[in-house]
Amino acid sequence: MFIETYYDERHLIPAGLGAPAIPYPELTGEELTVWQTYLPVATELVDMPAWFYDITPQPVVEQVQKAQSQRLFDRIEIWSRSGDPMAVGVLDGGQIRYFSIARWGDAELTLEQVKKRLRVEDCLLTLIPVTMILLFLVLTLTLI
Q: Distance (Å, rounded) from C-alpha 80 to C-alpha 5?
């Protein structure tokens, strides 16, 4: 199983006036859009439910607990799709900001690989209806 945590005290990001700096990378622009598209199901973690401990690797649980104990975020969400979740810290102060806490799952995917997968999925979603229409037309014409 692939596990990647993003905590890094060397690269602190200011959260705002009087708020502690955040030691996790911020998701912005294309990176944010790609991850939100690839991981379309967002589940808010409230008080670390039992299911989270049961299905999540220990290093990820520790990172989420660390983020919660430091009260860095307004909430923590798990973005997911089959087998490839990501823990994301969310700040709601005015403009919503997202921060990568940890990612784990079946495959170690780079942003470029995720973008390629999304392009392939788009092509397949376009080809399936076209193929069905062509098949229907062929079957209709053979019956005539």
A: 16
Hunting for tokens 């808010």 — which residue is that?
Answer: 44
Q: Does residue 15 have a pLDDT over 70?
A: no
DSSP for 87-98, please give it. Answer: EEEEE-SSS-EE
Q: Contact at 8 Å (CB) between 22 and 9?
A: no
| Token pair in block for residue 104 | 């784990």
Beta-carbon neighbour count of residue 130 at 10 Å?
9
Alpha helices by DSSP H, the chain: 29-38, 50-55, 58-69, 111-143
pTM summary value: 0.75
CA dist., res. 73 & res. 75, Å (int): 5
Indicate the Cα dihedral angle 116, 113, 39, 87, nearest 10°: -160
Q: Which residue, among 33, 88, 83, 82, has the nearest Cα to 60 in the 3D structure?
A: 88
pLDDT digits (tens, 9 = 90+) for 50-75: 778 888 889 999 999 999 888 889 99
Alpha-carbon distance of 89 to 103, in angstroms, equals 12
Report the chain's terminal Cα–Cα distance, integer Å: 55
Q: Tell me whether residue 70 is exposed, middle or buried, using C-beta atoms within 10 angstroms of its C-beta: 0 to 12, 13 to 18, 19 or more.
A: exposed
